[in-house]
């Protein structure tokens, strides 16, 4: 039996099925709370400085079903979501919420995936480096950098990077996705948003990895490996790293969800048309369906990524059993 087959056999299928079934009422509760909160918020999607004639307001409300009782609007919306239809956008004429999510989600997911790739690579390397040099100048240097990364919020880091590397050095774009014909998610536009989001994640992961590495290097199986005469490099790579990486697996899932939701601020700072920007614009304009669609997508991502992290943890550690 290969390693892949053994890992596949460790997937807790019963636990996975239960988590997926629990996700249904969880999502329903999220939709219900979000729906009621949006309708309880002051103002409406068609309120403006200039008052519309009553007949026009009535016609618009009838077109979008807003003239029906609240409970009827709720059940109609839930029925639509169950069929994958998030409804029309009240503010972006000619486009449905599905269209807007299709436009913005790839940008948010690209930022999130690149951020986690950078954070995991750099943070893990720094954590291992510091953990193997505990209480040395190198260890203190890495932990000082980590404290800086955790302490400075992204809404401060982003503008500073723009000032230094965009307006000052002119290396990267200030924001947006570029102009025609150089439009797109190029390194010129994506580097600063990814760096801004990755910095606190690098700090957290390096601290987590350092602590895990120090604890693992003191474990009995490491002493046994050394007693067998294995080279220190083999002890670290073959015996210490697999155990030390386990806490990182359980952190990566929720962290990815956090990065996706954290990109709401970053997308506004850098002017990126991602799902976070649509969410903020929808909330400001009382575009009920757009906000609801963004909330549902984010909630689904959080549930799925947490489940994936739990399954990976069980696959990598045979001692983990889910009842």
UniProtKB/TrEMBL annotation:
Primary localization class, coarse: membrane
Keywords annotated in UniProt: Cell membrane, Membrane, Transmembrane, Transmembrane helix, Transport
Gene Ontology BP terms: transmembrane transport
Transmembrane segments: 20-41, 107-130, 142-175, 187-208, 248-270, 290-316
CDD domains assigned to the protein according to its UniProt record, in alphabetical order: TM_PBP2 (cd06261)
Keyword Nucleotide-binding: no
InterPro entries xrefs: BPD_transp_1_N (IPR045621), MetI-like (IPR000515), MetI-like_sf (IPR035906)
Topology of the protein relative to the lipid bilayer: Multi-pass membrane protein
GO CC terms: plasma membrane
Protein family per UniProt: Belongs to the binding-protein-dependent transport system permease family.
Name of the protein in its database record: Oligopeptide ABC transporter permease
Organism: Hyphomonas hirschiana VP5
Organism classification: Bacteria, Pseudomonadati, Pseudomonadota, Alphaproteobacteria, Hyphomonadales
